[in-house]
Amino acid sequence: MGLLFLTAVFLFIYALLLFYYKHHWQCITDFEPDIIPHNIPVSVVIAARNEEANLPSLLQALEGQTYPKNFFEVIVVDDFSTDKTAAVVQPFLSGMVMLIQPDATIGTSSKKKAIETGVRKATGELIVVTDADCQMDTEWLQTIVAFYMQRHAAFIAAPVKYSNNSSLLQIFQTLDFMVLQGITAASVSAGFHAMCNGANLAYTKEAFLKVNGFEGIEKVASGDDMLLMYKIGKEQPSKIYYLKSDKAIVTTQPMPGWKDFIMQRRRWASKTLYYNDYRILAVLIFVYLFNVLFFVLLIAAINHKAYAWMVLLYLIIKTGIEIPFVNKVSLFFGQQKLMKYFPFFQPFHILYTVSIGLISQLGTYEWKGRRTK
User: Fold this and answer.
1) What does the pLDDT look like over 150-192, one tens digit per residue?
2) E strands, the chain, in order
3) Which of 227, 257, 287 is the last residue of a domain?
4) With a threshold of 0.90, does the pTM exceed it?
5) Residue 66's closest CA among 150, 141, 146, 147?
6) Which of 70, 114, 174, 235 could pair covalently with 102 via S-S, beta carbons 3.0-4.6 A apart?
7) Residue 272 placed within a domain
């Protein structure tokens, strides 16, 4: 009876949390610029390590931006790549595109070091950060700048989605990432807790320098996005925004294999204990325990067959709670066709959440041939 009561309480709280996210997602209006920006100096910073296959298409997409070329620069920071990253950038070098290396040694460099070098080199008032494997609409930069001007933002989180083929791994990643994006938008819009993704964000150079960049978080394997957002948000809480616009969406690639996927998610989750915001920590701990509850019910069902119905009921109710929110988010990202897979991934998603949450706090992480703690 105690386990039944505990399950009911957890499901009720989880339903309230998802309703809260869904409500605030729906409260965000799609951004429509009142002005066509043309004279704000912008620096696009790209930290690139072993990206010879991806950089040409990204640089072509940036060349095709509608924002005036004489008001933005592209800074590619080659993070000591071991492939032909520097060579593929050479044909694009101009007054608009420059190629530099991090202000660090090979042994001490990191993505944060690369971004920080790019920001300090930047001449733009607004820093826009993206990843080398991204693609975007031609009005991407113009939309971000217009939003910055109208909101007077210090930090802007913008939407990211995954491309995907028909493999189950990529479909699973796309759905999982889409949920994270919906929570990102809702939480930032509500001022509840800070979330963003480093593939698509913007902040003023002034705000970055005011918090001393990544100082204090430079040793964390991840966090060039959310931990920086938290630092800036502490200084200027009223100037943190989420930009909801289909023209601002950046498309990036999911991990090609299971090993890369697990390593990426471990790296993302490794920053959890570095959050100083009790709100996001409380949500992360609750969601983790909520997923652990599934295994508690499963063990109980193995020992007592009467609990088997609770396992099934837990999965059905959990899925029913999530679908209305996830479906709304999928419509914005144009990925609603993937919703038919959503219920079938539930058991695996629970296993993945619990296992990654546990192992992310242990050991080291390999990323693009570099190991970090």
Assistant:
1) 999 999 999 999 998 889 999 999 999 999 999 999 999 999 9
2) 42-48, 72-78, 97-100, 126-130, 135-136, 155-157, 160-162, 200-204, 240-242, 250-252, 365-367, 370-372
3) 257
4) yes
5) 141
6) 114
7) no
